[in-house]
Amino acid sequence: MLGLVPPVDAERRPTVAVLFADLSGFTSLVESVDPKVVYEIVRPMMDEFVTLVRAHGGEIQQVLGDGFMAVFGLHEELGDDAVRAVRAGLTLVDAAGRLPGRLPVHVGIECGEVLVSPSWEPAGYAVWGRAVPLAKRLCDLAGPGTILVGPRASELVGPEVGLTQPTRRRFKGTTDEVLVRSVTGCSARPLALAI
Description:
Elements: E1 15-23, H1 26-32, H2 35-55, E2 58-64, E3 67-72, H3 81-98, E4 105-113, E5 115-117, E6 126-128, H4 131-141, E7 147-149, H5 151-157, E8 161-163, E9 167-169, E10 178-186
Parallel strand pairs: 4-7
Antiparallel strand pairs: 1-3, 1-4, 2-3, 5-6, 7-10, 8-10, 9-10
Helix pairs in contact: 2-3, 3-5
């Protein structure tokens, strides 16, 4: 039994950008080498990715082996949360491709209102809302080195972020088709941070 459900602050409903990032080829890696080798490859990458996301103002909500979820604008909405999430995603793709032997990363980003609640340890909070599963589905759909954004994120990034024409996708559990775009670039993009 998990115990009593902690109270939720119903007033805490920020509009955020949710970013999911996963390593491409992780399952194949696990199947082909010793677990220690997997750890020696993946752990430094994930540590660097977390640092890069935080440098763009993202908060890590959870890390699960070869992937993680980050939230932008949770405590302070700066109006550029979607752009910062895209910049973080581009930085992750660049970092993954910088050195030989690294696995490529794929990223999904969506924006929307979320409910913030207490979480199970060690995470400090949980976020609930449509943007969360959509960002995860977009991440799952993205190929290596690709960043996909959902309809709300597409609206919020503005002309600063280059996007492809939208394609319509139906995801498991969604009632309507979702307009999906791929990120092609970002103007005034800061240089990738050296870790």
